[in-house]
Amino acid sequence: MSARGTYLFVLPWELQTTGGVNQVVGGLYEGIARRSHLQPRVLQLSWNAREPDESVDAHGRAITRFRIRSSLGPSGSAVRDLVRYVAWLPFELLRIRSLVRRYDVRVVNTHYIGSTELTWVLAKATRIFRGKVVFSLHGLDIRTLATLRGFRRRFWRWVLRRADAIVACSVGLAEETAREFDLPATQVVTIHNGIDPGKFRDLEAPHPGGASGHAPRLLNLATFEHKKGHDVLLRAFREVVKRYPAASLTIMGRDSDTRRSTEELVGELGLGKHVALHTDVPHRAALRALSDTDLFVLSSRNEAFAVSLLEAGAMRKPVVATDVCGVPELIRDGDTGVLVPSDDPAALAQGILRMLDDPELGAACARRLHQLVTTSFTQDKSTSRYLELVE
User: In 169-318, at which residue ranges do the beta strands (DSSP E only) sit?
Assistant: First the structure.
């Protein structure tokens, strides 16, 4: 048993995989370790780990792989799922009690919800767990649950209402969640994602802002999925190339549903010589690419709050982004970047050209974004808000 108590982050996948959620959890882990009396630990859900399987990753983070049975998924037979879950529940709660005692768990903070939240709620209701239960929302997770109807929707509303706190990474997502699930506004708290500015100082470009003459380099960091709007970006970039024939675009992201269609669209639009696609690139390599770019472009159809925008700001990069959900909470048009409507290739092309044609605008926006990010969207501020919730 821990002498200090444990702050347990719960993830449905490996912490080492690429993606914004993992960057957020990794940052919070560091913040909790540095600023709290609690000891952070990551619980990675693994069906093969019937008993806690402990390890320490390359960053020195304590990892435990452990099986926790899901309650009610987004599809299939709800009755069958619940009957199976209830049948196993006594055994599950005994295993949870053992886990809680082993690590002296004081806080359970699940990230990317949709699987084991009911188990933690029931563990607290039965006093097997007596600490705080916090659900952290990242966008796609809660929006997937919001598509459910009937019993499944009522079920998740019931589960959500029993958390000690629900954390949304933007005001827009918090309001959307409270509205969709009829939750008290006071239960859904906004804690913006944050970064550690110190980690970016050696990556900042010596001459930030503006484009490289007539050969501007554009970058997009986003998972290959429909909501990231890579098809919109490519159609917009085709118009950019007409004015800047030597322009290049690099897209880096986790391999997912739209990677193949994105590759095909590059060929269809005749952009093979201008566009490079990279999948599952390590985070450090993605940051190096960001350091070398002239303009960061976020083309998302929906975006709760992109960590990549914070990283671009930390490295003093001009930004063009779509006006969706939490993005305007960071990018203000003509002030900290250029903001354009979503799902509109013409508007996105116009926004990119506006920034490329006016290097002084790009440099000024990059400076203001850097100032905003490094003072108001830091890892320390995010950690402090979480600790206020649980301590």
Answer: 188-190, 217-221, 248-253, 275-279, 295-298
Where does 241-337 show beta strands of DSSP type E?
248-253, 275-279, 295-298, 319-322
Residue type, 206: P
Q: Give the number of other CB atoms < 10 A from CB of residue 18.
A: 19
Band (pLDDT 50/70/90 cuts) for residue 16 is: confident
Token pair 């780990």 is at which residue?
Answer: 49
Hey, how many other C-beta atoms are within 10 angstroms of the C-beta on 285? 12
C-alpha 220/C-alpha 308 separation (Å) is 9
**In contact, 134 and 35? CB cutoff 8 Å:** no
Domains in the chain with CATH codes: 6-191 (3.40.50.2000), 197-376 (3.40.50.2000)
**What does pTM read for this prediction?**
0.89
pLDDT digits (tens, 9 = 90+) for 234-292: 999 999 999 999 999 999 999 999 999 999 999 999 999 999 999 999 988 999 999 99
Going by C-beta distance under 8 Å and a sequence separation of 6 or more, which residues neighbour residue 80? Answer: none
Q: Using N-to-C axis directions, what is the helix angle for 359-376 and 307-314, rounded to 10°?
A: 110
Average pLDDT for residues 358-385, to the nearest whole number? 96
Quick: pLDDT tens for 172-230: 999 999 999 999 989 999 999 999 998 887 776 555 555 556 799 999 999 999 999 99
| Distance in angstroms (rounded) separating the CA atoms of residues 286 and 219 | 10
